[in-house]
Amino acid sequence: MTEQNNTQQPETQFAIQRIYTKDVSFETNNVPEIFTKQWQPDMNLELNSSSQILNEGVYEVALRVTVTVKQQEEIVYICEVTQAGIFSLIGFDESQVQHCVGSYCPNILFPYAREVISSLVNKGSFPQVNLEPVNFEALYMNYIQQQAEAESTETLQ
C-alpha cells in the first residue's frame, strides 16, 4: 500500500488576457524644414512601468516607452506609447507577483510598444527606429536593490 502525500503545492497559473495600446502620442517640430537638413540625430529612450490590481489575481500592467529625438539640441520628434496588458496571476506569493508585474509582463509588452513606435516614426516620414531589446529583469533587480538601499538609509537616520 502506498501512502499519498496530501500536501500538494498550490498550482500557479499565468495567463495573458489582453494586450492593448492604451495611449499614443507623436509630436514633431520644425516640419518640413527638418527634412532639408542632414540627419544626425541623438535619441533618448525612457521606460516606465506601472501596475494595478483589477480583481483578485488579475492585474493591468502598463509600459510607457518615450523616444525623444534631437538634432543639434533641437527636438525633432517625441514618440510616446503606453502599451498595456491584463494578466492573470493565480497561486503566486506576493514577491512572485511583484517580480512578474515588474519584469516578466513588461518584457511581454515591449515588442508591441516597439512596433507601434516604429510604425509612428515611419508614418512621420523619419528614418526607421529599431529599439534594442531591453533587459527588464536587470532593471527590476536594480530597482529592488535601490529600494533596499533607500530603506536601509532611512533606518540609519
Automatic annotation (TrEMBL):
Its main location: cytoplasm. Keywords: Chaperone, Cytoplasm, Protein transport, Translocation, Transport. One of its GO terms (biological process) is protein folding. Pfam families: SecB. InterPro entries: SecB, SecB-like_sf. It is found in: Cytoplasm. One of its GO terms (molecular function) is unfolded protein binding. SUPFAM superfamilies: SecB-like (SSF54611). Gene3D superfamilies: SecB-like. The keyword Transport applies. One of its GO terms (cellular component) is cytoplasm. Homotetramer, a dimer of dimers. One homotetramer interacts with 1 SecA dimer. One of the proteins required for the normal export of preproteins out of the cell cytoplasm. It is a molecular chaperone that binds to a subset of precursor proteins, maintaining them in a translocation-competent state. It also specifically binds to its receptor SecA. Belongs to the SecB family. This is Protein-export protein SecB. It comes from Gilliamella apicola.
